[in-house]
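Risk register update: the risk of archive-format incompatibility is retired. Evidence:
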Amino acid sequence: MEDVEATETLVTLLAAPGGLTERREAGRRLLQLLYDCPDVESCRQVIGALGQLGERRAVAALVTRLKNPMVQRASIRALGKIDGPESIAALIDCLLHDERSLARIEAARALRSSGIPWVKYSLWQAVLRDPEPAVRDAAWMTLSDIAASARRP
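Archived output:
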């Protein structure tokens, strides 16, 4: 019953008009749903919706979920859509220090939208020092994408 209710609430929130007041309320309610998630799939949906909203209030909760392999990928992707130094710092930490190579790859990809110097530096660190070739490749591709977007008018 809770699964259905959570999903219905999520769908309602995402279908709401895009005004600032509605977005704030949707973010608040989604954050509450995140703390009350009945199952992994509901959590992934809520995490994705928080990312789509760019909900900065969710950063701390998403960082906590980076430790859970069942929702880590969704959390990384959501953090990549949330602008702000806390989300970028969490992604860089994941890129440079997470023990799971798939998490480091996702973190490199999630940093694609940020071209600030310390992100580039961190990506270069991954290119030069990560033991996994797939992580080095992902970091290199992200650096290439950042460079290409900087050249576009």
